[in-house]
Amino acid sequence: MNASEWMLPILQERQPLLPLDSKIRPKFQLLDGLRAIIFDIYGTLIVSGSGDVGSVDQTDRSQVIQRAMQFVGVEERLDRPVMWCDLRRVIERMNAERKSDDCISPEIDVVAAWRRVVDEHGWTAEEQDVATLVRLATYFEAWANPTWPMPGASDLIHRLSSSEIALGIISNAQVFTPLLVEDLLFSEKNRPPVFQPDLCFFSNRFRHSKPGPRLFNALANALQRRGILPQEALYVGNDMLNDVWGASQVGMRTAWFAGDRRSQRRRSSDPRCCELSPDLVLTSLPQLLECLKLP
Ligand SMILES: [Mg+2]
């Protein structure tokens, strides 16, 4: 079994999950001169139970942890059960260790977090094997944060990929996230890449997350190398802070995707979002096509 097979449960454990009406009013306008569109993943191209990678809310997921531990055969190696607060504490500690003026929004490696959690519960780092840790992280994520392709996502991406517009991704992500993206693209062999590799930025690879500036700055540099100005690029995401504010800081145009009540994040109490006005407010992905002049 290879590493990507360890992560297959992220696809295999899914159940259909439809977006919930957000009751937000869409805002359209025709956007001229776009040369790149960059997408968020969770809550935008995929329906996400928690609205982000991992579990951002406070719901106690101890039962899901026990189930995943049992399923991958870790339970009997521990001296006591792992609880939700144990995982949260480790993640908070890992973030605190990395936080600095240069890294205002750290990102963890979730497999490393699980490694530390089980080590503290008696399955020591010397005894651990990476396959079991990746499977544990994957099953927990699949069950705690169920996902399903957002209606219209595949069609939208394929329609855009046949235009001149370059496509990219900035996503708060973990090791299994690219599988969800590949699934949206049908993984057809011999297809030219739909998302341009130089325009794709996953937070776990940088150990920086949104809304910190690192990923958006890296994107702005990559656009510049292609001769694309920030205002010729549109960022589409479900979170007014992580996505709309973050992208606006590098001068990109923005679309707030408010197509699912679970994940639309208005962030109205955050001062950074009070005066923010995205160019578009979308309540379904196909609406984006109505705002573009495609041949
Ligand atoms: Mg998102």
Question: TL;DR?
Answer:
This protein is of the alpha/beta class.
This entry's quaternary arrangement is: single chain
Number of domains: 2
Cα Rg: 19 Å
Shape: globular
Strand content: 5-15%
Looking at CATH, the homologous superfamily of the largest domain is HAD superfamily/HAD-like
Q: Quickly count the helices.
A: 13
What is the number of strand segments? 8
Poorly predicted sequence stretches spanning 5 or more consecutive residues: none
| Strand order across the largest sheet | 5-4-1-6-7-8
The CATH architecture category of the largest domain equals 3-Layer(aba) Sandwich
Description:
By secondary structure, the chain is an alpha/beta fold. It folds into two domains: 3-53 and 147-290, Rossmann fold (3-Layer(aba) Sandwich), CATH 3.40.50; 62-144. Helices cover 38% and strands 13% of the residues. It contains 13 helices and eight strands. The chain has helices at residues 3-6, 9-12, 62-72, 84-98, 110-120, 130-144, 153-161, 177-184, 203-206, 213-225, 240-248, 271-274, 287-290, and strands at 36-39, 46-48, 147-149, 166-171, 195-202, 233-237, 253-257, 280-282. The strands form two sheets. Strands 5-4-1-6-7-8 form a six-stranded parallel beta sheet, sandwiched between helices. It has a two-stranded antiparallel sheet with strand order 2-3. α4 (84-98) packs across α5 (110-120) and α5 crosses α6 (130-144). The radius of gyration is 19 Å and the shape is globular. It starts with a helix and ends in a 5-residue tail after the last helix. The mean pLDDT is 93. Bound molecules: magnesium ion. Residues 40, 42-44, 52, 237-239 line the site of magnesium ion (MG).
